Model the fold of this input.
Amino acid sequence: MSTDIYDNIRKHESVGRAFLYSLFGEEIEASATGSYMTSSSNREFLNWGGYSVFLLGHSYPKIVQAIQNQLGVLPLSTRAFPHTALKQFHVQMASMAPIEIEKFMLLNSGSEAVEAAIKLARIATKRSTVMYLEKSYHGKTQGALSVTDSPIFRDPIPNFVTQTQKISRTDSEEAFSDILSVKPAAVIMEPIQGEGGIFELSQEYCQKIRDACNQVGALLISDEIQCGLGRSGELWPSVRLGLEADIILLGKALGGGILPVSAMLATKSAFQPFDRDPLIHSSTFGGNPLAAAAAAATLSVISENSIPDISRNMGNILKQNLNELASDYPDILEEVLGRGLLLGLKFTTPDKVANFMQSCVKSGLLLTPCLTTPSVVRISPAATMTSQEINKGLDILSLACKEVIKN
Ligand SMILES: Cc1ncc(COP(=O)(O)O)c(C=O)c1O
Done:
């Protein structure tokens, strides 16, 4: 059966994708609950990867229930009128969002939220250029890719539709003067870069960028699709950094690990063009009842259970243990990066990463690579994991270090 599925992927989807899957053994995902995914051969995998989607683990009961309730009455709407799940989402989000952020637009994928933000900023400012940070990742649709700093993803495209320009992620003076001279529509940034190697922007850097945006009337877009909603130990990473974002983007965890949902949130003043003309931006499935119910339930679980605090405390414990691991294996591990449950293991050389990840999968632990920073492996477990699961994951990481040293 597994060969059959892989053959079909090779034939009908992509030879390269089938190859990528097969690097970790030809397993098939069959079911998932809590911190575990179970394959069709009955192997259990502890999920510390999943591209940071599973902040609440798999199949969180309250979210499953909310989706099932909605499924039973109105899964999709005609879009002639609003539906009640939207109000649940609006009320819940309004109770949690930074005070000046009061406009919410539900969309489907992270890239779609990035596209909406770029479009809104260009319309609102009547300017073309969007500036982005080196080593950024904002998605793979044309607009999102045009603000993504990754040659492996960008180089196949002959040219981009959106005018963009890159700024330094470390030299705040240089970034400041670049923004002043370009006068862009917006600057887009991830408070903690995921793909870019779990790289945390400094408070000093962020304030300088905010200052530059204020001086030239550019909007500041905080892409919290990966690091937000508690993943990195804070509900709103941009707030800790004093970014005072005009637009905040959410995705990944917003669907509760069950449905694909994203959102573009904005201040009233940034959102004005879309406020005036509701047809200027829309999406057939954006804000559909199932997605809205999932997002509302997810936000309420995050808020009621203080998930950002849990993530921060669990992250501290995990980071301390990972630092000990790094000091036990200095020949392969250079540094432990990140905060909360968005952590990274930086290897001394990128060639050790594939062996390390393969060894982890063999022992039943899933991790996520950083495709544009190949020397870093992402660790993004669920805030719902037990201390037993933390110990199990740490044991597997330690075993994988031993195996990499041996080879
Ligand atoms: C920070 C960030 N922005 C945007 C995206 C794109 O999201 P999606 O893959 O849902 O389009 C990602 C995905 O990894 C991301 O990490």
